[in-house]
Write a structure and sequence with these properties.
One of its GO terms (biological process) is ribosome biogenesis. This protein is mainly alpha-helical. It is about 60% helix and about 5% strand. The chain is elongated.
Length: about 800
């Protein structure tokens, strides 16, 4: 079939492989080379008339085209058995070698590429006689010799003295890139050899052959290899120092080493060794010279840089080893130094970002880093928290500072430690450890802080703010061991708030009670709930008493409100005596008869220490004032209705108030901001030789004036008394616990008994205290020592 350049046909004819032996240019082959296919696309049109192709062996194929049916009929398509001439390879190889050298030298081949491809095709795929059976083998061997000779020409160039390592790398990169391009073109030309002979013979492919020769002659030359690797490492070192380098050059050369299978053997060990040496020296130097936050930032930057190198040119197979080297030399080796040098400072200065960065860096190196930073966090909490608790001079600020400290730690836990469960447990355990370093006092002060928030003096806070503050105080309450101490002080303060009417909100009181109930259970709050019930019942009693007094004459026209309290629910108050006005005594007797007539078998005991009064009077003409005072203050002021001048001893004789209470009462009336009495001499202390007169020049812009009720504030002696009562209650609980255990076990060794006592009791106790209580029970014959073993106890039924 004659060759045609028409492009309208959509059918390509399959060529008989024996239609040409010597490259006759007039014979067309439909099997064109890949190179030719990249440049142009051959199409063959079928003529409307029949066309016959004649082959050298006489076979033919006829193509008939019909405009009506469009059918294609192929006839006599048989495999040719034409044998090439015996000297065919010798005639063809010079053409192929000439074309091959043209490719390697970058010149134009004089022979048509299609013809070259066809010759190679004939040598590899046609049936051959015995004399030419080694044509593909000869072709492969000759090709290898040409490539071998050509690649060896690179070596002298690369062995020349080139002082600048960057120039040397650029020359090597240029040679490699040119080699890759030539190798690709040769592979395309000899593709049939790859698909036939190479596929079945145990020899490298043409591409692999090129790579192998380049590796053998060029990159396995020790001088070239060393200059290449050292040059790459020098560029990487420059980049690590902050200099600008040609990343594409590094990327291409490393890619070359990977393609030649030299990366892992030759480059990677040297690269990792230089990396470790750099970061080992850098870490040792900078940990001593940089401030801790600067060092952490430097480490983070180094990790980012190495990750960028992995992205840009270092192979991903090196990632684990590379990142490990950086982490090991900059983090793991300096954990102790980083923590001791500045961890406490970072927390003290509230540098959340730096602590978060330290945690993230330590997280990278696994459990060893996390355990260390958690331990440092716990030690910080114990150290700085203990300083807040044990300083007696700062007791008045302890709770507020503890709240601030806890809030600060919670923020570190959230922002830096990501609310990690183990870190949260460290915070709780450490906080609990230091807050109980000083027994009883934190519990007392937390109870006082709750009282301060629930009193009317805290009305400036909204209900939501008050709830938040109470929740924070409850968190502190959870950490203390002496919850019975808290209960004692809380109950005493609650009693004052309820009896004196000092609660900011009944809802807030009940809300706090509910919180305590949820936290500690019904037993803990049963007495507190009883106090609220007594107050409600007292309101009903006073309504009934007012109805009883309706229509009856009230002594002295005095109004009275009484709260009837159940002794078991309320704090224990010492009975006090005082001489009341006659009218008040008569009214008190009327109430006693009324109450006892409705509740037989009960006994009323009056407690004057919590009473308060509202007095009306004037110190100047027509200047009527109302004074909110305690009962003791009222008794003293009423004396001046009959006397102008009274001595300290006179006041004691007329009122019978205990000296301690009287001194505080007179101090509030004569030495406070609002002075209703004048005192001689003018000192701040109350002495036995002092004299008092009514301050007739007193004036105030308000009509109702509140006088500071000194007796509402607990004295140190009262606080100590409350604590002692708690300790005494603990002794009773220890006794009950020991008896309960012995009653169950009958016979028990001392060590086992001690262990079970500590397991059952929830408040903090010492070993010596338990031993003392056991000795007390032995003396009282609740149990005895075994006759044969002194350290074994027997229960006495």
């Amino acid at each position: 079939m004659s060759k045609t350049n028409s492009t309208k046909s959509s059918i390509r004819l399959k060529r008989d492989h024996q239609n040409s032996l010597l490259g006759d240019s007039s014979i067309s082959s439909s099997s064109s080379s890949p190179i030719k296919k990249q440049k142009q696309q051959h199409h063959t049109n079928l003529m409307n008339k029949g066309t016959r192709n004649h082959y050298p062996n006489g076979s033919s194929s006829t193509f008939i085209s019909s405009t009506s049916t469009k059918k294609l009929i192929i006839k006599n398509l048989k495999t040719s058995s034409l044998v090439p001439p015996s000297d065919y390879f010798d005639k063809i190889w010079p053409l192929l070698k000439q074309a091959l050298e043209a490719i390697l030298n970058g010149t134009t081949s004089p022979t048509n590429e299609e013809q070259l491809y066809r010759h190679i095709d004939h040598l590899c795929t046609t049936s051959t006689n015995d004399t030419n059976i080694s044509s593909p083998n000869l072709l492969y061997d000759n090709l290898r010799k040409v490539l071998d000779e050509h690649i060896q020409t690179f070596v002298p160039i690369l062995l020349n003295e080139i002082n600048d390592s960057n120039d040397y790398l650029r020359i090597l990169n240029s040679i490699w890139n040119d080699h890759i391009i030539r190798s690709s073109l040769i592979r395309q030309l000899f593709i049939v050899l790859d698909r036939t002979y190479v596929l079945h013979a145990a020899v490298p492919s043409i591409w692999e052959l090129n790579q192998d020769l380049f590796r053998r002659y060029v990159m396995q030359n020790s001088i070239i290899s060393n200059r290449c690797i050292n040059g790459i490492l020098k560029l990487i070192e420059q980049e690590r120092r902050g200099e600008t380098v040609d990343r594409s050059l590094i990327r291409n050369l490393i890619r070359m080493l990977i393609d030649l299978h030299l990366y892992r053997k030759d480059f990677e060990p040297s690269f990792l060794q230089s990396t470790e040496q750099l970061y080992h020296n850098e870490g040792r130097q900078l940990i001593q010279t940089l401030e801790i936050s600067q060092y952490l930032t430097h480490v983070e930057r180094r990790l980012r840089e190495e990750q960028a190198r992995l992205t840009n040119y270092i192979d991903q197979s090196t990632k684990v080893q590379l990142i490990h080297l950086v982490e090991n030399n900059l983090i793991t080796s300096h954990i102790k130094e980083m923590l001791s040098k500045g961890f406490d400072t970072l927390i003290n200065e509230n540098r959340y970002a730096s602590v978060a960065l330290m945690y993230e860096l330590f997280l990278r190196i696994g459990q060893i880093g996390i355990i260390e930073i958690r331990e440092a966090f716990g030690n910080y909490i114990k150290k700085h928290g203990r300083a807040l608790v044990v300083d007696v001079d700062k007791d008045d600020k302890m709770v507020d500072e503890l709240l601030e400290f806890k809030e600060k730690l919670d923020r570190f836990l959230h922002e830096c430690f990501h609310n990690n469960e183990k870190s949260s447990n460290i915070l709780k355990d450490s906080f609990e450890h230091f807050i109980n370093q000083r027994s009883n006092k934190p519990a007392e002060l937390i109870a006082k802080a709750v009282d301060a928030r629930l009193r009317t003096g805290n009305k400036e806070a909204s209900e939501e703010e008050l709830e938040k503050i109470l929740d924070k105080l409850l968190i502190l309450f959870r950490f203390i061991h002496g919850k019975d101490v808290f209960e004692a002080f809380y109950k005493k303060d609650l009693a004052k708030r309820l009896l004196v009417g000092k609660s900011a909100s009944v809802d807030a009181e009940k809300s706090m009670l509910l919180k305590l109930k949820q936290e500690c259970g019904n037993v803990f709050t049963s007495k507190l709930e009883g106090m609220f019930k007594d107050m409600e019942l007292s309101k009903d009693i006073m309504i009934a008493f007012d109805q009883f007094m309706h229509g009856r004459e009230t002594p002295g026209n005095i109004g009275m409100s009484v709260s009837v309290l159940t002794m078991g629910f309320w704090p224990t108050y010492q009975p006090v005596s005082a001489i009341l006005p006659v009218e008040l005594c008569r009214l008190k007797d009327i109430f006693e008869k009324f109450y006892l007539s409705k509740h037989t078998g009960r006994k009323l005991q009056w407690q004057y220490s919590l009473d308060h009064c509202l007095l009306k009077g004037w110190l100047k003409e027509k200047a009527v004032k109302e004074f909110q005072v305690s009962l003791y203050q009222a008794l003293v002021l009423l004396l001046f209705n009959q006397h102008l001048n009274l001595s300290y001893k006179d006041i004691i004789e007329h009122t019978k108030i205990q000296e301690g209470e009287l001194q505080r009462t007179l101090q509030s009336l004569a030495c406070g901001k609002i002075r209703l009495l004048n005192k001689k001499p003018l000192t701040k202390e109350i002495n036995a030789d002092d004299h008092f007169t009514l301050n007739t020049s007193f004036d105030h812009k308000l009509i109702r004036i509140k006088i500071n009720q000194v007796q509402l504030k607990e004295t140190p002696e009262e606080n100590t008394s409350t604590t002692q009562r708690v300790v005494q209650d603990r002794h009773y609980q220890i006794d009950a616990c020991v008896v309960r255990i012995m009653k169950t076990r009958k016979i028990l060794a001392h060590a086992q008994l001690m262990s079970e006592v500590f397991a059952q009791l929830k408040f903090p106790i010492s070993t010596s205290t338990v031993k003392i209580r056991i000795e007390s029970l032995l003396e009282r014959e609740y149990m005895k020592r075994a006759t044969d073993k002194a350290n074994v106890y027997e229960y006495i039924a």
